[in-house]
Design goal:
With 302 residues, this protein is an alpha/beta fold. 32% of the residues lie in helices and 22% in strands. Helix 2 packs across helix 6 and helix 7 crosses helix 11.
Length: 302
């Protein structure tokens, strides 16, 4: 049987472990190489279109953004993200990892709830697999959301920071490794205006509380030290987090228009007393309303 057998194509383990395993027999027979991230994303794009239809935009929901995703429109179809061959199984990823097709005005929006992070031990290709699959499935606009710490005391909890640029400080790249097939983009993609100026302008016009800023993406695993925050400030960062930068590079490389927005869930280390994850989730729930308006404006401008 080909790809697309519901629930049958899970692969155990993470990254190198599962990418190496041969898959044969029954519904799990794969005809492409699991080692080739481009081929894997193409095959998953086909699988996704078969299950959910063809999307024209994708919204990736970060921590604290869950409620915003469901407010975008009516859900037409959904599937577990882990039914995609290149997405790690739910035991690793955590619960609530769903891909939904949402009808929002005249847009068919793929909402991906549940991200894969470098700090979970995954490689860069696995981290960007969902976004790559979405673009190859038809999404020309990629909207990346995240929770972040603010390095600017005047940009407080609940603010939306529309990303103007980024610092990829993860030490990883989704474009390192075997060259992409020529039809999938250049070997060295241009990262000027990575975050689309028109989409940024639409977002800032829709949310009077929104500000522009530079996102520093780190490997993560722990929050930063105050000394690291001082260093990031000197480098030009306005917000800091543990996601987004690799997905933005991968989406841009495939020719998508990229939009990014951070929900400030805390002031960065050294600028407030202590940091904890509960605080991040609570700030998201409290801000769902104005963030939904902002994303709708971006989708309307696409
Ligand atoms: N640092 C890194 N990641 C984060 C933070 C932070 O302060 N807040 C939410 N995600």
């Amino acid at each position: 049987m080909p790809l697309g057998c519901p629930g049958s194509n899970r692969i155990e383990g993470i990254d190198a472990d599962y990418m190496q395993q041969p898959r044969t027999g029954g519904c799990n027979t794969l005809t492409m190489s699991l080692d080739d991230p481009w081929e894997l994303a193409s095959a998953d794009a086909e699988l996704l279109r078969g299950r959910l239809g063809t999307p024209d935009a994708v919204v990736v929901l970060g921590s604290g953004w869950a409620e915003v995703g469901t407010s975008l429109g009516s859900v037409e179809a959904e599937m577990p993200m882990s039914d995609l061959v290149g997405v790690p199984p739910p035991t690793v990823l955590g619960h609530g990892s769903t891909a939904s097709m949402v009808s929002a005005g005249d847009r068919r929006v793929l909402v991906m709830a549940g991200r894969v992070h470098l700090y979970e031990g995954h490689g860069a290709h696995t981290v960007v697999h969902g976004v790559r699959t979405a673009v190859l499935a038809g999404c020309r606009d990629v909207l990346l959301t995240n929770a972040a710490g603010s390095l600017r005391p005047e940009v407080g909890v609940g603010s939306a920071v529309v990303l103007e640029d980024q610092l990829n400080l993860t030490g990883a790249s989704p474009l390192a490794g075997p060259p992409p097939p020529p039809e999938m983009g250049a070997r060295f993609a241009d990262m000027t205006d990575l975050y689309d100026p028109d989409l940024r302008a639409a977002a800032l016009a829709a949310d009077p509380r929104g500000v522009g800023g530079v996102y520093a993406g780190l490997l993560g695993g722990a929050f930063e030290t105050p000394a690291e925050i001082r260093m990031l400030s000197g480098m030009g960062a306005d917000v800091v987090g543990m996601s987004t930068v690799l997905e933005a590079i991968a989406a841009r490389h495939l020719g998508a228009r990229v939009f990014g927005v951070s929900l400030v869930t805390n002031l960065a280390a050294g600028l407030q007393d202590t940091l904890d994850h509960e605080e991040v989730l609570a700030a998201g729930a409290a801000s769902a309303g104005h963030l939904g308006v902002l994303l709708q404006a971006v989708l309307g401008a696409g």
